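Let's inspect a concrete specimen:
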Amino acid sequence: MSNVVLKLSRRIAVAGLLTTLGLGSFAQAQEKLTPVRLRLDWVWQAPQSIFTIAYERGYYREEGLDVSIDRGYGGLENAAAIAAGNYEFLFGDMSSIILFNPKNPERKLLSVFTIYDAYLGAVITRAGNGITKPKDLEGKTIGAPLTTGGRTMFPAFAKANGIDASKVNWQTISIQLQDQQFAQGQFDAVASFTTTSLLNLKQLGVPREKLTIFNFADYGVGLYGSGIVTRADYAQSNPEVVRKFVRATMRGINAMLGNKEEAIASLKKRDPLLDVGIEIDRLNLMIEMTLKRPSVEKNGVGHVEVARVQDSIDTIASVMEVSPLPKPEEIYTDKFIPSQAERMAKF
């Protein structure tokens, strides 16, 4: 064998060894990632781009997490799915935990990072139809699925605004048909989440300026909205995983605020049929109603006041069966949130 051939053979052998070592290191790195599963609150929509942009930019992997993300199916069904151990994390609202925990003492859930400073539930009706204040809903028909947030929390809204709930008629309708049938005039109002119905109605030819919107947050229902939820026992056993997940998600929030187009592009990988323009409008609506609020601007995302959690418990318990009454620390903890400096939103 000539010297040239011998040198070439050695180079190939060394290159092969380095490649093997490199693959081995890559495999070892893969093994170090902790798999976690996230269930979202609802279908793929703009607000959930917080998580998809964090995923696409590799924020979770940088924290050593291998995150899978699934769409959700609403309120208490989502809570049951994570409580059963099918997911480690849920993007869900605090009110669901207040209702879920007393009935499931062996599978308690815990809010570890509140993203929405306000609950997005609302009753939406057409402007000019005589419904100018909440009490005007008496004698009217509201269309909504049984499990939508707007309908679930309607009793609290009714109590806060002096509505005789027994005089409100309900038409139970699927979420897929709710806004379409309202646009066709089949009932007087819908109970929904504003970030869902307002954009659906816009697509159906009913713009925001032709609607009267009773946002629960503006009408005496001071509930916190959605955030990161996990099982109480999982948080206790895996505190660093929870901290890492929360930290990466906060980075996702600021990534979304800094580049909305990229955020929606990351979401569109999950649902190619999404309309980019509509979803950016939806994103702006979510920011307006839940993030760009005085408490968040002053204290950062995830700032929670214990007194307000107690008020939320009392509000829900005053209109629904909640027994035994949970304590705030059984619903929420701040043990896993980043520092205030890390939580400041970059609007």
About this structure: The chain is about 45% helix and 15% strand.
